[in-house]
Amino acid sequence: MKRKYLRIVRKAYRYLRHPRIRKRPWLVALTRPIFDRDLWTPCRYTVAGGISIGLFCAMLPIPFQMILAALACMRAKANIPMAMAACWVSNPFTQVAIWLSQEKLGDWIREKTALSVPHFMDVERTVFNTTLNLGSFTVGFFIMGVILSILAYPIVYGISIFLPNKGKPHVSVRKE
């Protein structure tokens, strides 16, 4: 599993370092932080942060979630490949179910806490015999994103207990 991961990461890393891509001046500001090797090496600290960012971005109802996750990982010094992979939780097959559950969660939270939203967001639409509320949907996707991003840390740290090196970063000693 680790070999396959490293092979995929090396291939993507080599592609991004291609001279054609590196010569574009407007891409230099993006590509320079991407090539930090710590953002591509799996250890429990960066993987937990990457999955957390990826799951939050996966719950956002916007296109190009993976690009947003990669940019956030560069800023937060988290694992970029794991964040981009976590974005695939909301794929085209699961997207409708996730949106409906977000709207139901938002309804439930607004009902239990008497949370009010601005009047322009309190719009109801009927789609496929289901009444959807934009305000409830907004509350739902934000809360679901926060909950999933918080749950990523104990899950990654719990799984890392069973790994041979406990998910700690590999420190290589250079001989000079």
Would you give an account of this structure?
It is a single chain. The chain is mainly alpha-helical. Helix content is 62%, strand content 5%. The chain folds into two domains: 1-35, no CATH class; 36-160, no CATH class. Strands 1-2 form a two-stranded antiparallel ribbon. The chain starts with a helix and ends in a 16-residue tail after the last helix.
Number of beta-strand segments: 2
Percent helix range: 55-70%
What order do the strands of the largest sheet run in, or round the barrel if closed?
Answer: 1-2
Question: What is the CA-based Rg, rounded?
Answer: 20 Å
State which percent range the strand residues make up: under 5%
- What number of structural domains do the residues give? 2
Main structural class: mainly alpha
SSE blueprint:
Layout: H1 2-16, H2 19-22, H3 25-34, H4 44-58, H5 65-76, H6 80-86, H7 95-113, E1 124-127, E2 130-133, H8 134-160
Antiparallel strand pairs: 1-2
List keywords for this structure.
2 strands, mainly alpha, 8 helices, 176 residues, globular
How is this structure best summarized?
This protein is mostly helical. It has helices at residues 2-16, 19-22, 25-34, 44-58, 65-76, 80-86, 95-113, 134-160; strands spanning 124-127, 130-133.
